[in-house]
Amino acid sequence: MGIMYDSDEAAHKETREVEGWVSRDGFFYAGYDAEHLARYHGSTQRKCPVCGEIFETNGYCNHCAQIKSHERFMAMPAENE
Asked: Partners of 29 in the beta sheet?
């Protein structure tokens, strides 16, 4: 099983000269959105907020991606023959 985005293994809070977050592979993030960046970089899997499917962090949820693709296709204007 991979490392989920919201797991304690993905990232942890740490104070160096400034307070920030450290991803599981040692990258330090400080400032705005630091927790999200550390968790995103330190995780291997995420849970889709729409359907709940588990997918790779650097990919897209298959179910929702197919729905979005179909919606984009259906929104295209039809070409008259």
From this structure: 21
State the CB neighbour count (10 A cutoff) for residue 2.
Answer: 14
Each residue's pLDDT tens digit, 35-75: 988 988 888 888 888 888 888 766 677 788 888 888 888 89
Is it the case that residue 1 has pLDDT exceeding 80?
A: no
CA distance 37 to 78: 41
> How large is the greatest C-alpha to C-alpha distance in the chain, in angstroms?
67
Strand order in the sheet with 28-30: 11-15, 19-23, 28-30
In SS3 terms, 17-44 reads as CCEEEEECCCCEEECCCHHHHHHHHHCC
